[in-house]
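User: Could you write out the 3D structure of this protein bound to zinc ion? I've included everything you need below.
Assistant: Certainly. Input first, then the structure.
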Amino acid sequence: MTVESLATELSLWSEICKSVESFAGKKAKRILQQLSTLPVKPSRATRRLGSCSSKNGVPVCLRLQFEQEPENLKQTLLHEIAHVCDQLTVPGGLKTRPSHGPQWQAWAQALGTSTKSCGHSEALNQLHRKRLKLVAVCQRCGAEFRRVRRLNRCRDYYHTACGGSLRQI
Ligand SMILES: [Zn+2]
Ligand SMILES: [Zn+2]
């Protein structure tokens, strides 16, 4: 799957092309070329809706969590595309800039998605809650701790609220 094939499936591709063309002028052709072939991979993360991986300032793939609601998925794709466009228009400068800074926000706005840096998905929150396992119990007060991953078996943990030591399950 590529950004173009997914965006086409979600009926977003022609809108994206129009937005990039009007926002980036002569740079638009190159940006759209790189966007269209950029791979999209499914993510299993339950705390992030999507992410953009890059190498030496060049985007290499997008990861999207496909369990989120369809409308959310569209917004997440546009959010990540804004990161790609941002990186492609300021080569090499990414390390020194905030990832959701003014340049990214300008792109997000041009693409018609929210300029807030994180989206929420109730479907994903539910999936996250389902994945939580009981990992430890406080031996003093009985409080229970749930996490996606187990705690480190080689370490001792204490309950900050009561000072009791935690027994790992
Ligand atoms: Zn972001
Ligand atoms: Zn406790």
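The first helix runs from residue 3 to 9.
User: Perfect, thank you.
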